[in-house]
Amino acid sequence: MTKKRIAVIGGGVSGLVSIKCCLEEGLEPVCFERTDDIGGLWRFQENREEGRASIYKSVIVTTSKEIMCFSDYPIPAHFPNFMHNSQVLEYFRMYAKEFDLGKYIRFKTTVCSVKKQPDFPTSGQWEVVTESEGKKEVTVFDGVMVCTGHHTNAHLPLESFPGIEKFKGQYFHSRDYKNPESFSGKRVIVIGIGNSGGDLAVEISHTAKQVFLSIRRGSWIMNRVGDHGYPFDVLLFSRFKHFLRKIVSQSLLNTYLERQMNQRFNHEMYGLKPKHRAEDITLTK
């Protein structure tokens, strides 16, 4: 019986896992990667590349290696609990080499279009048009896996900032940020207290004259390191804590989590205490 061919679009972490899963299911994957290397989001470059997700040089993952590793390929013991982006990429390279995934990837190949075959209701097949070195190729696949991520296009709602067109300073999305040197001696406002907002506010503060952090509402700040030096997520998502969630009221869980986070600093004293309870965010992670 002929193996079904699957097109995998993107050679980042999701693309690599998809290739491996296809092989385990007896399928024939063909991965199309528009650049010349794997890694996707986690491959740092000094200059932003159009059409590809971008990170800043200092990015360190907020998820511990125990939680983020592949179940069939643990992260090496000598790697830190929270890895720098270069170590994340190194891990993905090790993963691809271990399972010989590279031979299924076509680099410098852009997917131009994906559409259903005329007989799709009976065949379930797709027509995929790709382009490499100026030449286009049409291939029929039995399935398509889109692994392009969701961090490629920046969300910059300028309509929410009346008068921005008259602003004489510089403004841009965190996607375009690379390092803090260009902010030396300047007054900077960082809008948003997500992972990127928190990172950039701290990093830029070392070189800028003054940094403001603007947020719409309060936020619970979770430290990466928990009790006794263990990663916070390892402590939070253990089997024991999962069991407790089933037998303890949500109100009590909220009180416990908020007390843990307030041990580092009092959120109310710093004007950061939000209206929502702590468990409202941890359950959606």
UniProtKB/TrEMBL annotation:
Keyword terms, alphabetized: Endoplasmic reticulum, FAD, Flavoprotein, Lipid metabolism, Membrane, Methylation, Microsome, Monooxygenase, NADP, Oxidoreductase, Phosphoprotein, Transmembrane, Transmembrane helix
Pfam families cross-referenced by the UniProt entry: FMO-like
GO biological process: lipid metabolic process
Main location: endoplasmic reticulum
Reactions catalysed according to its record: trimethylamine + NADPH + O2 = trimethylamine N-oxide + NADP(+) + H2O; heptan-4-one + NADPH + O2 + H(+) = propyl butanoate + NADP(+) + H2O; NADPH + O2 + H(+) = H2O2 + NADP(+); sulcatone + NADPH + O2 + H(+) = 4-methylpent-3-en-1-yl acetate + NADP(+) + H2O
Cofactor entry: FAD
Subcellular location: Endoplasmic reticulum membrane; Microsome membrane
DNA-binding is among the record's keywords: no
Record's function text: Broad spectrum monooxygenase that catalyzes the oxygenation of a wide variety of nitrogen- and sulfur-containing compounds including xenobiotics. Catalyzes the S-oxygenation of hypotaurine to produce taurine, an organic osmolyte involved in cell volume regulation as well as a variety of cytoprotective and developmental processes. Acts as a Baeyer-Villiger monooxygenase on a broad range of substrates. Catalyzes the insertion of an oxygen atom into a carbon-carbon bond adjacent to a carbonyl, which converts ketones to esters. Active on diverse carbonyl compounds, whereas soft nucleophiles are mostly non- or poorly reactive. In contrast with other forms of FMO it is non- or poorly active on 'classical' substrates such as drugs, pesticides, and dietary components containing soft nucleophilic heteroatoms. Able to oxidize drug molecules bearing a carbonyl group on an aliphatic chain, such as nabumetone and pentoxifylline.
Entry similarity comment: Belongs to the FMO family.
Protein name as it appears in the record: Flavin-containing monooxygenase
Gene name in the database record: FMO5
